[in-house]
Amino acid sequence: MPVTAKLSRKFYEKLGEDIANELVDWFNMVDASYQSELRELNEFNFGRFDAKLEQRAAGLEAKIDTRAAELDAKIDTRAAELDAKIDTRTAELEAKIDRRGAELEAKIDTRAAELEAKIDRRGAELEAKIDTRSAELEAKVDRLAAELRAEMKVGFARVDEKFAQFETTLTKRMFVFWIGQAATTAGLVLGVVKLLY
Q1: DSSP readout, 139-153?
Q2: Do 14 and 90 meet the contact criterion of CB atoms below 8 Å apart?
Q3: pTM > 0.70
């Protein structure tokens, strides 16, 4: 009959239900393996030495009982040692985990602060750069607008001058044309009047 290993409640609390149950199952599996190997050995010896076993049954029974008691005692001792060793190792690991967790948390906080400072610094640099570039672009736009206005004034002045020249030339030509027409009309009228009289 297999002996079911059972661990203390503290052990379950330290490692958790899953790991503790897995360890208990492993102990039970080791115990079953030991018992299976012992059974196979006994059956082999029984088949081989059947005649001798009948003669020495009483002696062997005592020897087996003694050996079983020794193994039980050894298993109990070993289980107690393993239990103590596991408790010690668990405490060491928990302390190490706590220490490492604190170190990592401090490192994360430091790194986060460094990154925040870097982001703030970079943001300020970019903001200053954007402000500078915006001011430069505004100044350039104002300068170009002023240059365009000046060029437009010069261009409009040239156009006005050309229109004034054209108007003067047109007025002169129209005056010459109308004088020529008036002279022609006056000559025709005089010619018609002379013909009629």
Answers
A1: HHHHHHHHHHHHHHH
A2: yes
A3: no
